[in-house]
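sorry for the late reply, my laptop died twice this morning and i had to redo everyting from scratch. anyway the thing you sent over, i finally got around to it. pasting the sequence first so we're on the same page, its 143 residues, then the predicted structure underneath. double check i copied it right bc i was rushing
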Amino acid sequence: MASSDKPILSDPMITPDHALLKTILGDKMGWWDTIMDHTIANYPSVTPVWKYYNDGKQWLFRLMKKKDTLFWTSLVEDTFRITFYFPDRAEQLIEASNLPARMKEEFVNGRRYGRIRGLTVRMESEEDLDKVRELIGIKFQVK
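ok and here's the structure:
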């Protein structure tokens, strides 16, 4: 983790809520809201979950689709990161997607955790919203 990726939500006694997120994310809160609004509007079966993880000493957000995690989110200095984990069978969907070539290569050559691999989007610009939307769509296509 780069020094700019220092976890922000490290106090187990402070449960994150929208007001706290807005304070931390500032202008980037609009991106958070856009992602949540898009996901809930297009996939109403999702459930938001915040949980404190002792192993990483931080709160993580996950958006659940029944018992499966759609994506994980962590707040870091100045922004947030969204991580998706895909099974190997998603490779064709990812390669055929509109994702940048760098992300496709990152997935194909990425570290494997059993039969899954991750892709992380560090929210830095408006274009990152398109990447997240694309990955959410792929996640719902994978059976």
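The mean pLDDT is 92.
thats about all i looked at so far, will dig more tmrw
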